[in-house]
Amino acid sequence: MTAQRDEANRLALKNLTQAEPVLVDVQRASDVVPGMTRHTILTSGPALAWSEITGIQRQAIVHAVLYEKLATTTAEAEALLDAGDVRVEPTQPHGCVGVSTGVYTASMPVYVVENRTGGNRAFCHMLEGNPPRLFVNGAWGDDVVERLRFVDQVLAPTLAEVIRRSGGIPLKPIMRRAIPMGDELHTRNDAATLLFTSTILPVLLDIVGERQDEVRSTIQFLQATPFSFMRMGVAAAKAALDAAHGIEGSSMVTGMIHSTKEFAIRVSGLGDRWFCGPHPEFQGKFFWGSSKEDVGWAGGESSVMETVGLGGFAQAAAFALPFRGPVDQMIERNLRMYDITLGENPEFKIPYFDRGLPVGIDIFKVIETGIRPVLNAVVIRRDGEGVAGVGPLVTAIEPFQAAAAAYTERYG
Amino acid sequence: MTAQRDEANRLALKNLTQAEPVLVDVQRASDVVPGMTRHTILTSGPALAWSEITGIQRQAIVHAVLYEKLATTTAEAEALLDAGDVRVEPTQPHGCVGVSTGVYTASMPVYVVENRTGGNRAFCHMLEGNPPRLFVNGAWGDDVVERLRFVDQVLAPTLAEVIRRSGGIPLKPIMRRAIPMGDELHTRNDAATLLFTSTILPVLLDIVGERQDEVRSTIQFLQATPFSFMRMGVAAAKAALDAAHGIEGSSMVTGMIHSTKEFAIRVSGLGDRWFCGPHPEFQGKFFWGSSKEDVGWAGGESSVMETVGLGGFAQAAAFALPFRGPVDQMIERNLRMYDITLGENPEFKIPYFDRGLPVGIDIFKVIETGIRPVLNAVVIRRDGEGVAGVGPLVTAIEPFQAAAAAYTERYG
User: Fold this and answer.
1) Which helix H or strand E contains B156, and what residues bound it?
2) Predicted local confidence at residue A322, as pLDDT
3) Are residues B218 and B143 in the same domain?
4) Does B309 fall in a domain?
5) Which of A205, A269, A349, B71 could form a disulfide with B77 if both were Cys (CB 3.0 to 4.6 A apart)?
6) Are residues B89 and B156 in the same domain?
7) Is B223 at the interface with chain A, CB within 8 A?
8) Strand (E) positions, B233-338?
């Protein structure tokens, strides 16, 4: 059995690391995301009934109904949701990655990333701006709607034009160069966003004559929001993970996601089941004015980055992370990730280690070593007013235990 | 005396670290460099008689006479130089920094950097392209002239226009952001060049309508030659060093330069004398096909970067340097530089250390500790065919000994 499992894991890891994610378009979710309708709202985490969704994740879904003009009041919106006339579905089965609450509506533009190796696609909604007041973190108001409209009417069509004229933008070369420039590509994307801007520059020049204002606003936005690339990065990660999912006998993790309620993982050889458990333990730092009491678990699936061996698995590439702990701790934490992974990324290297990034979390290595994956993340304020803190989240062991039990049951 | 020296050094260090270098223009050397004439050629290193200059430095000067059309054959050019009809002068007294052989002619465009704190200016000739065949490294031929012409006719006027329209481009914010992105700003400038391009982008958009081809070629050049920023960086360093020079009683080093013949330093409180000694010891790596025997000391003054606490003094910020040694060695070498410097840069930080960069080399600290400054550098092939190797150069102790003796003689 172990030989078969090793063989399956080798294939899963290969599909993961050999994915060639290319940003091929920006389109409205309803035009490109499979199964997306005007009355569908997607949200982060494993499937939950509407009644189980609480806090800012619930809040953001209500705002989504208003944004989509399916209702004009909060009460009306809630009634539609209660009645199931607006359906809330998890992002993942739609090929989407939810950032924070992860709320998508039909009209929202999404990045479309194609894995040229596997032929599959993944999607991510676009960044609206910088914190504090983001729709995706539960904020609502005219300012929030204005930013969403800018994305809808300026940023999305301009980038769509640029991407189409480019014939697609390969994301791996950008990621490969960004890591030695201090990005772990989850909570730091400064270099990747600059590199993306630099990549599209020639095409921006082609269209600036016809679209002066749009091109200028797009550049301004990319310069002002260095997290921009993350939305492309998570779609690239999801495309790679989906290509590595469904390998019979593989014990490799192909997803780690959160809802307001819980944390969950999925395993390549264990079908579409999500193994749930408690939220991770936050070991980062709170910003001034925020404390443990202010945290509202927003949900969030940007931990797809750690699932492909970035973020917390690449933090020794990102000593310039703000609010980080001591470097020795970052290095040690990062080194431990080699003990729970199946291999080293042949293309993405950590300069400090002079080694490929640890990639491909094996549920059995987690169980045997007791070492839990570390996620770099921000935690969100429960009042929808932005970010409470930033730093490592140490995942719970329960989902890995549940997955290992299911694996043993299935494969003996 | 020590109290007075300390006070003088504090002032010198302050002038150095509080310099505010702004790129204000690109102009022909003869239009902006003080004392530059059509029959002047500048070159790297302390003053040497024409007859003392050998190797590729001599070669590049002969090429310069040809480039400037003062002669049509090598023999003619040499005759002019021998007769003193074309005068060879050192760059430094003209406020210039020579990269490699450091050859400037009257018509060549230079970056003009103004130190807004001190009111002084410094200059650097522009990068022609990537190795191997660069004029500045002693190469000659139609291909070399073609690249120089591109700089002269496309790159320089386009950047001049951009810089003037911008009202000057402050360089410190670019440098401050580039260091946590893996640049030590001497042998790695990838992030700084990207950030510079990003900074000038809005103005490039303003002028692209009138200058389609020039703008596109400029962007292409900046994207293809990630060393571009270095030429602005060394001018910024020189402007800061000149502002820190001439402080009565200061034992701080305000220049480290090379000619084909020797290495030399200058000290803030010791006037315009250069204290000379043997070339540094190369401890880096040779590229495939090159060895010790292929090295021709080209001269070079990009070690102004180490003099302001960058390059070898910032290598723990640049673990992604190609052909670097083990990280532990980089860290240890970098830490040692704190033992020979007067302070830590309040604005430029090394993420790994979480400390300001070591800055302000004190000749007495060098003598007392026996620790010699480490320069990151490339070494050049004697045949003019490019770069032989890259890595640390450990400077000789003699110039520091000579300076200390002169200091004691002068100040007791």
Assistant:
1) helix B156-166
2) 84
3) yes
4) yes
5) B71
6) yes
7) yes
8) 253-258, 263-267, 275-277, 281-282, 285-286
